Amino acid sequence: MDIYTKHSLREDRLHGDAMLPLATYWIDKEAGEPVLDAHWHKEAEFFCVIEGEVQFQVDTEYFAVQAGEAVFINGGDLHAGHAVEGASCKFCAIVFDIGWLSSASYDAIQSSFIAPLQERRRTFPRHIRPDSEWGRTVLGHLADMRHDYEAQTPGYEAAMKGRMLLIFHAIAAAGQWRNRTITSASELAKIDRLKTVIVHIQQNFDRRLRIQELADLVPMSEGQFIRFFKSMTRKTPIEYINTYRIRRAAELLRNTDRKISDIALEAGFDHVSYFIKVFRKQQKTTPSEYRKESSQDSEIHNELE
Asked: What are the φ/ψ torsions at residue 302 (nearest 5 degrees)?
């Protein structure tokens, strides 16, 4: 079972709170497990690979990310992580609201960095590696931020914001603060189509969804749509729908005492036996064992607090 599922990223969740709109998410994935489904959110993100390797996707761009490297994702960018055959991985996502870095008054930082990033005119380098001085500096700040957030010693909020601003400095000083590449109209159309389908799935996952219904949203024929969807997500539409349904079911298993049969129906599965089969394939355990292990994890966490 992936005990880190409770930290999985959702487009509609609040990352942190109003006082500190930032959160870190630690996730372990065994070899062969899906890493991160295609999604997006309004916040920016640093995706840091701690162990293993991930084939990462941002919009329609793919690249391999090794342990000790990171990826910057701007708010609104469609992104996903894909497993590398035979490799497990561990990663930490630092998700934050760019507006949190703004000052009370409009200053040079707001004009030169925050506003251009929010307006998607300028951006950080996408792939951050330790093969340059600036890359090592940025990766060091990200490692310190992960530590600060976990430790949460008095004043850690100031350290988090300070390190984020130092990342801006390291990138700008190295001449890496760059104009955002203009995405071609055809690539934008692909991204917008996929987002339309994903939103529809998330809003209607609890009922029967037919491939033709999804294809009509784009619009495409069934065959064209299946090929398009798999080329963008590396999953078939059914695989993506089932993954999303299992994620929602896992939340209900952790947070409620409802019957498994009721949870299966609410998650969009017509038959409990099929739900258990899909759940076991994805989570490497049964729904009842998942609930039991989640409860034990919660008890251990409470004892440590």
From this structure: -65, -35
**Helical residues (DSSP H) of 68-175, grouped into ranges:** 108-109, 115-118, 133-151, 156-173
**Mean pLDDT of the region 6-15:** 48
Average pLDDT over every residue of 114-139:
93
Q: Are 5-179 and 185-299 the same fold in CATH?
A: no
8 A C-beta contact, residue 168 and residue 116 = no
CATH architecture of structural domain 185-299: Orthogonal Bundle (1.10)
Domain boundaries, the chain: 5-179, 185-299
Assigned CATH topology for domain 5-179: Jelly Rolls (2.60.120)
User: How far apart, in whole angstroms, are the C-alpha atoms of residue 81 and residue 233?
Assistant: 9
Condensed to tens digits (0 to 9), the pLDDT of residues 240-269 reads 999 999 989 999 998 898 999 999 999 999
Q: What are phi and psi of 205, to 5 degrees?
A: -65, -20
